[in-house]
Amino acid sequence: MISEVTVQNPAYWSDKGLQLAQLLRSARPEQVIGDPTGTPADPDTLLAVAHPEYWSTQPGELEEVLRLAAHKESAPQAGDVAAGGVGAAARGQERLTLTVEEAAAALGISRSFAYEAVYRKEIPHVKIGRRILVPKAALQRMLEDPPTPDDNR
Fold first, then answer.
1. HEC profile for 82-111?
2. How many CB atoms lie within 10 A of CB 53?
3. Where are the domains of the chain?
4. 74 conformational bin, left if phi > 0, alpha if psi -120 to 50, beta if neither
């Protein structure tokens, strides 16, 4: 089972979710998917796709995550919620992802149990740089269609 695939230059792939999904479907373990323009990799924007089998079947959701990854976090501005806090977003802008801690609170489980579930690939997630994010849409879908004991999600 493939554990993780790294995508370089998410900005290039942000409108090519279907193409990237096809690449993820045939990716090898620990593979790095670059962009054809040859743009050098920026370590701060590398996107580590955990559980690429799942993401290869979700090209629309994959594009959303790529768009998020393409925009580096900027310094907090006046009017930002929780300036300097992890996961801060501008007022009026709805975030598409949760931190693992936020996902744990939403699910009613402990922080440590949530991290364990992420590492066991029971909670869908993406890594952007060193951050682990849980897409709200993927979490909602997981709750609507819970895996059976035979599923290898």
1. CCCCCCCCECCCCCCEEEHHHHHHHHCCCH
2. 14
3. 4-72+92-144
4. beta
The 10s digit of each residue's pLDDT in 85-94 is 344 344 445 7
19-31: pLDDT as tens digits: 998 888 888 877 8
Amino acid (one-letter) located at 90: A
Four-point Cα dihedral 40, 44, 45, 49, nearest 10 = 110
Relative orientation angle of helices 136-144 and 100-107, to the nearest 10 degrees: 30
Question: In whole angstroms, what is the distance from residue 42 CA to residue 74 CA?
Answer: 15
CA angle, 46 then 48 then 52, to 5° = 140
Residue with tokens 């975030």, as numbered in its chain: 95
Beta bridge partners of 6: 32, 48
